[in-house]
Write a structure and sequence with these properties.
InterPro entries: F-box-assoc_dom_typ1, F-box-assoc_interact_dom, F-box-like_dom_sf, F-box_dom, SCF_F-box_component. Pfam families: F-box (PF00646), FBA_1 (PF07734). Keywords: Membrane, Transmembrane, Transmembrane helix. By secondary structure, the chain is an alpha+beta fold. Among the domains are: 42 residues, no CATH class; 44 residues. Strand 14 and strand 15 form a beta hairpin. The protein starts with 5 loop residues before the first helix and ends with a helix.
């Protein structure tokens, strides 16, 4: 007899058992290995730090790498950290958002310039055929577009994320004879992670009453009226600059000597306006800018040997002169200053220059084809992943948009022709009645009726 269990051991233990062991072993080893993107290789803090320094376009692609990365990129803490890095990188090389008008069609054109790359036109959510478009911002990566004079068609837009939202306005209307424009500003409440829009119905200089102020919260999606007791007069459709989520205006404030130019800012925590100290004697042109994270003012005279003074604002010491730049030769117009200190200027040929304020040397220059001279609006831009509720993707201006624009233009032309025909018909009929009723010479009736219509 064969040994007990020997034959069965060969068949079961070695042949079948060994076969099952070899087939399961690779699967178990593969399941035990961590994913390449897991925190077993790099701690989450290191992965988050690396990703927060990448461009928005790259991060949008990286959301498909894993579920962990997708959740990380969508967290508010990561979005805030990414925006801080994006803003700090701008000190070495700014991204510029440029608004202009097409020379032939008069349509709005929005372009983005990342030195030393070429200027690229971007798709804007604002209807290009509307008569006017003003730009406010940026504020935490957002741009606000609207139509003056009463701040209509307010559109919040994140160019990096290519998404926008049309803001529904309140039922508040300007009071005839009291308000003469609406000034739009933006602010950001970092404590509640809330993007704010300020809409100020500005009173005329002859009225010593406070302005009507409304504030929109992107978190609640609602407007509310703010209490304002400070009397000041705003003469611009937009705030002058936004620094660290705070909006600033250059206003006229009445006093016992008449009125003087002062600066005010909107306190996000208290929801009130505050007056800033005055600089005193200044030159002809002033321009509020953000320079290296601080509120600054450019002060210059437009002369052949133009010199510019740069003032910086400190909450403790007030205004102090930081440095002077010049002489700036060969510039027809100074458009402003970027956050890294580069001065933006334009010559008589429409070429835009980026000038180093220390050496007064030209760093970059670029120009636009078929754009109206003097229609440029240039702002700094920092990318942001921040989004608000109800945003939609920005679509390209396709054939439907062009067709709608043609319909609006054709309707305007037809309306003008019909109106002219109606007025002419009424004028001829009026002359006929005068001739029949008064029996006066035709020439006298024509002269008299023409004078009447011109005066009425």
């Amino acid at each position: 007899m064969p040994p007990k269990g020997k034959g069965n051991g060969k068949k079961k233990g070695k042949s079948k058992g060994k076969g099952k062991g070899t087939s399961k072993e690779p699967k178990c080893r593969a399941a035990a290995e961590p994913e390449p993107t897991s925190h077993f290789y790099f701690p989450r803090e290191i992965i988050s730090n690396i990703l927060s320094r990448l461009p928005v376009k790259t991060l949008l692609r990286f959301r498909c790498v894993s579920k962990q990365w997708r959740n990380l990129i969508s967290k508010p803490d990561f979005i805030a950290s990414h925006f801080r890095h994006s803003s700090s990188l701008q000190f070495s090389g700014s991204s510029i958002l440029i608004g202009s008008r097409h020379r032939e069609s008069n349509h709005h054109v929005v372009s983005l310039y990342n030195p030393p790359e070429s200027v690229v036109q971007v798709d804007s959510p604002f209807p290009c055929f509307f008569p006017n478009m003003y730009i406010v911002g940026p504020c935490n990566g957002f741009i606000c577009l609207f139509n003056p004079p009463w701040g209509e068609l307010i559109t919040l837009w994140n160019p990096a994320m290519r998404k926008y939202k049309m803001v529904e306005l309140t039922d508040s209307l300007p009071r005839q004879g009291l308000h003469f424009l609406a000034s739009i500003g933006m602010a950001f409440d970092f404590q509640h992670n809330d993007l704010l829009i300020l809409r100020i119905f500005c009173v005329g200089i002859m009225y010593a009453v406070p302005n009507h102020v409304e504030m929109y919260s992107s978190k609640s999606g609602k407007w509310k009226k703010l209490k304002n007791e400070m009397i000041f007069h705003i003469l611009e459709f937009t705030c002058n600059v936004i620094v660290k989520g705070v909006a600033y205006w250059l206003v006229c404030m009445p006093d016992k000597f008449g009125s003087r130019a002062v600066f005010v800012r909107f306190d996000v925590g208290k929801l009130v306006f505050e007056k800033l100290p005055s600089i005193g004697r200044r030159k002809k042109h002033q321009y509020l800018v953000e320079l290296e994270g601080s509120l600054c003012m450019l002060d210059w005279d437009h002369k052949d040997d133009c010199h510019m003074d740069v003032w910086v604002m400190d909450d403790v010491d007030g205004w102090s002169k930081k440095y002077s730049v010049g002489p700036l030769v060969g510039f027809d117009l100074i458009l402003g200053c970027l956050r890294n200190g580069d001065i933006v200027a334009k010559n008589e040929n429409g070429v835009i220059f980026l000038c180093d304020p220390i050496t007064s040397s030209i760093k970059e220059k670029f120009s636009f084809d078929n754009n109206k001279d003097g229609s440029y609006v240039i702002v700094d831009y920092s990318e942001s992943l921040f989004l608000i509720g109800g945003m939609l993707p920005v679509k390209k201006q396709d054939a439907q948009d062009k067709l709608a624009r043609k319909r609006v233009t054709r309707f305007d032309d037809q309306f003008i022709i019909i109106l002219q025909f109606m007025l002419l018909h009424k004028y001829i009929y009026y002359i006929y009645l005068l001739c029949v009723g008064s029996q006066l010479p035709l020439l006298d009736v024509v002269i008299a009726s023409f004078s009447y219509f011109m005066c009425s």
